[in-house]
Write a structure and sequence with these properties.
This protein is an alpha/beta fold and about 425 residues long. About 30% of the residues lie in helices and about 25% in strands. The protein binds uridine-diphosphate-N-acetylglucosamine. Uridine-diphosphate-N-acetylglucosamine binds next to helix 1, helix 5 and helix 6.
């Protein structure tokens, strides 16, 4: 198994190109199931989760071709993939394929909308809480699907097609919003989604669906309206930049000090994290090329925050922020309100000498003057990268084990950081 070795102490200086967003790429790829024409997605990140979804879509009958490099294209730019679901040959998403990644469950929406039938294994993914699927099932039922659970599989049937409905989510869910949005594009009549997720990835999906001929208004607000159409067409869409990756590197620079341009990052997607990072001590400016993050040697300040659905502070940046404030001058409180078990990085951060006390949803982080390098274990996607952030300033050597978690969500992490001056390398095997 690969490991990452870091020697802390270097400041970060240079440019980091931000990849296409994993959390937008996945639903966009799944949207290819809604049409028999070709959906071309540009700027797809080269990540393990994207590769896994390609296998899942291939099993349903989606043909995929990867476009070659184009003149003037940067060496590190994302992939362009043509996805064509001419015929859905299999409406089952089996356990072996779905269990590795929760988002693969989302194929249920397009499959039942287009084929009137779907059999999808209950999901796996990061072990960060129970992550049930009740909201998905209630929404699909509201759209007229009959739902059964048999042998670990959800079976959705709508032989006469889905019908528009009024869906009010009791809780904000990104995945349930994506699935309801996709399913409703092919339902008969109007669907209104209330308390919809407002995440930028929902907007990106809606924009692509609109290019495919869907009639959608209100994406990015809490109320989305969809007027169903009988069929969707092919389209071309470029995946939005990864705001979580950008936020992660912004925290890394704030931690080490230095001056880095996050190329392609969009300030509007990161308003709250930018506010918080400024409180902690970073200077962040928006430029034509992206976001510039700068910190000279000034002390880091503590913060008091809660994770919230967008536009609040994202749970996907919680672990990274916690790593950052382990070195603040004072005590921070970080409250996790989205997932009940998303503090697995705490015990690993303690190996660096961080002082963190957990009490239910609250983590109290007492800043310490220095961290010391240590062997640590990646536990989930975002937790793993928090260990990298700590390792970048820890004295001596840090070895991060089980880095396959990082490969699910961060493209060429060690390469991007070492180009900015970090001492970081992958040790294979
Ligand atoms: C997505 C993101 C993930 C991010 C999360 C919250 C992708 C691929 N993943 O995950 O990176 O951390 O949003 O921003 O985009 N819930 C239910 N019942 C359901 C569905 C969800 O109770 O049927 C709960 C979950 O357990 C959780 C909360 O709702 O407590 C939010 O989860 P949700 O927004 O659905 O997360 P994902 O879409 O899985």
């Amino acid at each position: 198994m690969d490991r990452i070795r870091i020697v802390g102490g270097a400041r970060l200086n240079g440019t980091i190109p931000i990849s296409g967003a994993k959390n937008a790429a996945l639903p966009l790829m799944i949207a290819s199931l809604l049409t028999d024409e070709t959906l071309t997605l540009a700027n797809l990140p080269r990540l393990a989760d994207v590769a896994q979804l390609k296998r899942i879509l291939g099993n349903h009958g989606v043909d995929m071709t990867v476009a070659g490099k184009r003149l003037g294209e940067a060496e590190l730019s994302g992939e362009t993939v043509h996805l064509t679901a001419r015929t859905i040959v299999d409406t089952t998403a089996p356990y072996e394929l779905v269990s590795a990644m929760r988002a693969s469950f989302w194929v249920i929406g397009p499959l039942v909308a287009r084929e009137g039938f779907a059999k999808v294994s209950l999901p796996g993914g990061c072990a960060i809480g129970t992550r049930p699927v009740d909201l998905f099932l209630e929404a699909l039922q509201a759209l007229g699907a009959e739902i059964d659970i048999e042998g670990g599989y959800v079976i959705a049937r709508a032989p006469d097609g889905l019908k528009g409905a009024h869906v009010t989510f009791p809780k904000v869910s990104v995945g349930a919003t994506h699935v309801t949005l996709m399913a409703a594009t092919l339902a008969k009549g109007e669907t209104i989604i209330e308390n919809a997720a407002r995440e930028p990835e929902v907007v990106d999906l809606a924009e692509c669906l609109i290019k495919m001929g869907a009639k959608i208004t209100g994406a990015g607000t809490s109320t989305i309206r969809i007027e169903g159409v009988t069929r969707l067409n092919g389209a071309r869409h470029s995946v939005m930049p990864d705001r979580i990756e950008a936020g992660t590197y912004a925290m890394a620079v704030t931690m080490t000090g230095g001056d880095v341009l996050l190329e392609g990052a969009r300030a509007d997607d990161l308003k709250r994290p930018i506010e918080i990072l400024r409180e902690v001590g970073a200077e962040i400016t928006e430029t034509n090329e992206g976001l510039r993050v700068y910190r000279n040697g000034a002390d880091l300040k503590p913060v008091n925050i809660s994770t919230e659905p967008f536009p609040g502070f994202p749970t996907d940046l919680q672990a990274q922020l916690m790593a950052l404030v382990t070195r603040a001058e004072g005590t921070s409180v970080i409250r996790e309100t989205i997932f009940e078990n998303r503090f697995m990085h705490v015990q690993e951060l303690a190996r660096f000498g961080a002082e963190i006390h957990l009490d239910g949803q609250n983590a109290t982080v007492v800043g310490v003057p220095r961290l010391k390098g240590a062997p640590v274990m990646a536990t989930d996607l975002r937790a793993s990268v928090s260990l990298v952030i700590a390792g970048l300033v820890a004295e001596g050597e840090t070895i991060v084990n089980r880095v396959y978690h990082l490969d699910r969500g961060f493209e060429r992490l060690e390469d991007k950081l070492s180009r900015c001056g970090a001492t970081i390398e992958r040790i294979s095997g």
